[in-house]
Structures are given as structure tokens and as C-alpha cells.
Design brief:
By secondary structure, the protein is an all-alpha fold. It has nine helices and no strands. It starts with 18 loop residues before the first helix and ends with a helix. Keywords: Calcium, Manganese, Metal-binding.
């Protein structure tokens, strides 16, 4: 289904080897609030999203998150491709090196491996869109933290771009949530709706 352009959405040109920085940034690949989780979350949720416009948005943003994952991977690769054993040891990157050398593998900055338990797909439009809003804010916070820690402008510029996109995604999901609430019916519950709640309780025999 995808036709892709064979270039990064934002250029990555890092000239200084720094496995310590790579160890921090890799969290946005395989960490709990990273781009891999985001892409899988949105591309799974779209199937049961009853509001067509919201389903289309999930497809669009889920696809863009794949592009963002590619940017993060390019950054980690460029930061580690020329590292020596001494570089890895000095940066505390030696444990990662033992398992993966300088290959890309999804994990958090703390070393925890990627897990699908870090995101949800509930099939409830309000629940899923609310989680998506929170996911974008959490990812934005991670980028804020990275920008506080990292001073190299070659690394900061892609991070600033990615942070800005999290804000845009948050805004788009907010708009989708409002449109979905306007179209509430038994196919796209659940929001605070007293009459709808009464109907549901009656259907459960309460």
C-alpha cells in the first residue's frame, strides 16, 4: 500500500561519533514513548476506528511515525558507525555492543527491550484517541529531555524537527477526538454521555 520517497523526511548529517548520545536517542526508537510504538499503535487502531476521518488520520500519522523511526535509526547509526571499542567502553555502550555490535535494535535508553505491551489498541474510538493524545505528549516530553541533555547542533536539529511534529500530531488528534464526540453513537462509544450510559446499562441488565 505504501509508496515511499527514498530520502529522510529531515536530513541527518552527524559527523561526530558519540555512542553515549546514541544510547539516549535510541529510546525514541524502541522506548515506551518511541516512534516504533507510535507507528504500531496508530496503524493497528485505524482498523476499528468507526469515524472515517479519524481512521484516515491514524493511517497518515502512523505512516509518518515510520518515517520518524527511520530518522532516529539514522541518527543512532551515524553516532556509532565509527566507534571504537574504547569509545563504547567509555560511553557505557559496551553492553549494547556485546549483543548488537553497532546494529540497530529497539530498546529504551535504560536498556529495556521494545515490547508491544507499551501501547494499546482497544477498538473504542474515545479510548484510543485519548491514548493517542497522551502518546504524543509523552513523546514530546522525551524530545524535550533529549534537547536538555544534548548540545551538538548536528544532533539537535533533527530532534527539534521531530519534537515539532509531535505537537502537530497532538493537535490533529485533538481535532479528531472532537469530531468523533460529535458523531457519538453505539458504534463509537465511549464518552461521558448520560443518556447513552443509561442505554448501555439497560443492555447489561442493570
Amino acid at each position: 500500500m505504501w509508496i515511499y520517497e527514498k530520502r529522510l523526511q529531515f536530513p541527518v548529517k552527524i559527523t561526530k561519533t558519540c555512542p553515549k548520545t546514541a544510547q539516549l536517542i535510541i529510546s525514541q526508537y524502541g522506548g515506551p514513548d518511541g516512534e516504533l510504538s507510535a507507528s504500531m499503535r496508530y496503524l493497528a487502531q485505524r482498523y476499528t476506528m468507526p469515524v472515517k476521518e479519524a481512521a484516515g488520520l491514524l493511517t497518515d500519522i502512523g505512516t509518518e511515525e515510520l518515517a520518524h523511526m527511520e530518522i532516529i535509526c539514522a541518527m543512532v547509526y551515524q553516532l556509532t558507525k565509527d566507534m571504537s571499542i574504547e569509545d563504547a567502553k567509555a560511553a557505557g555502550f559496551d553492553a549494547y555492543y556485546i549483543d548488537h555490535t553497532s546494529a540497530l535494535w529497539p530498546q529504551a535508553a535504560a536498556g529495556l527491550p521494545f515490547s508491544a505491551v507499551e501501547f494499546q489498541s482497544k477498538g473504542d474510538a474515545i479510548t484510543d484517541l485519548t491514548e493517542d493524545l497522551a502518546a504524543e505528549q509523552k513523546a514530546r516530553t522525551v524530545y524535550d529531555n533529549l534537547l536538555r541533555m544534548i548540545t551538538d547542533p548536528e544532533v539537535r536539529e533533527p530532534l527539534k524537527f521531530l519534537r515539532a511534529r509531535e505537537i502537530v500530531h497532538f493537535q490533529r488528534f485533538g481535532e479528531a477526538l472532537e469530531r468523533t464526540k460529535e458523531k457519538l453513537d453505539p458504534s463509537n462509544f465511549y464518552y461521558f454521555n448520560p443518556e447513552f450510559d443509561k442505554t448501555m446499562m439497560r443492555s447489561f441488565g442493570r
